[in-house]
Known about the structure:
Elements: H1 2-13, E1 19-22, E2 28-34, E3 37-44, E4 50-59, H2 65-78, E5 83-86, E6 91-99, H3 105-132
Antiparallel strand pairs: 1-2, 2-3, 3-4, 4-6, 5-6
Amino acid sequence: MICAELFTKLLDSKGLRYASGTLQGGDTMVEIPFDGNVAKCVFSGDGGKYYSFYLFFEKVPAEKMADVLFVCNDLNAQYKWATFYVHKNGDVIIHDDAILSVENAADEAFELVLRLLDIAKNAKPLIMKAIYA
Length: 133
């Protein structure tokens, strides 16, 4: 997938660590370590121009689910670039989708990673407080 290849070349040029591979359906996933977690960038569709970003946070104990959902709702209202939700397996996830153009796929995907990781950094204390307070 050309967009994923361009993105990993950009990561290489910046000396950043990542892992990449092909998923069962043929999509490419690039994993970037971040603050004890892993950000997952999935490139799919024609040339990999359909981009999805996922960052998994902590598992939510059943007794904290309502508190975490309330925080996710507040974060969704505050950050228009990202969606916060609790996955069916109980993990809090930050997610984003985009359509990339091949001409600037690497820069677009990298900019989204930077923005979403910054949002995650700002949101993490609120999420952790809801889980562990």
